[in-house]
Amino acid sequence: MSKQRKDILNVINESKGHLTAEEVFMKCKEKGVSVSMATVYRNLGILSEQGIIRRVSIIGQPDHYDKILNAHEHIFCDRCGKIQDIHVADLKELLEEKTGIQLQSYDLCMRYICPECKEKERQR
Amino acid sequence: MSKQRKDILNVINESKGHLTAEEVFMKCKEKGVSVSMATVYRNLGILSEQGIIRRVSIIGQPDHYDKILNAHEHIFCDRCGKIQDIHVADLKELLEEKTGIQLQSYDLCMRYICPECKEKERQR
DNA sequence: ATAAATGCAAAGCCTTTGCTAATCT
DNA sequence: AGATTAGCAAAGGCTTTGCATTTAT
Predict the structure, then answer these.
(1) Model-level pTM?
(2) If you measure CA to C1', which residue is closest to nucleotide D17?
(3) Are the beta carbons of B58 and A57 closer than 8 angstroms?
(4) Is B42 near strand D, with its CB below 7 A from some atom of it?
């Protein structure tokens, strides 16, 4: 694993997740790591193919990349676009049970209005 | 609602869902409807903002557009990339209950190996 | 020495947008 | 007439790729 790949992985692991390629690139620069965007994309691709990180696809946004944790679910604020982790216990088993299908995995993104945005709306 | 918008909506409603903009465009042409890609994209955008159709985001693929049905979940074959509808009863309520958060909606895409691909793998 | 990874620049794909002409109310 | 929408062509954002160079094994 090359220095750059390790750096990119570290950036993702150290962050609270959900970084875009652009953000990974900027965090690398902040750390004084020299990388090109091509390398960032290439390594994000490789790392997610290898299952070391996770690629998350969200409507209308560039892909985000996540470290892999127990929390496999995301919650997205429809107003401010903030993405957070959230864990729904035993969901895979539950889905397998309900559908009768053996799953490789699943992607779940729930949409809500976050407390901050709700508060802002109330004030108007 | 313009003729083209109606045609585009019809194409989606008549299909089994999950069309890309490109596919909608082609189906329009097959039906002899004259539209430009710009119009297809514009109308798919408008229709999904209005909640008349649904935009589905899938990793590594262009957005797909769906008619709105009871089945709000998708299942995606990791081998052949086929996408199908599947319904998981009462999932929104279940998720709200498990998380304690009031949801606007959610996107769920389950990943599996479809029976055809499983069969192919067995033969090897 | 061989294989793998980088950086750059260019291309690619998917999607949106500015503008003019056409269409609808 | 006034407002909405279409079509075209051009631009835009995000991502990938070819190729020469560097780095690691």
Answers:
(1) 0.80
(2) A38
(3) yes
(4) yes
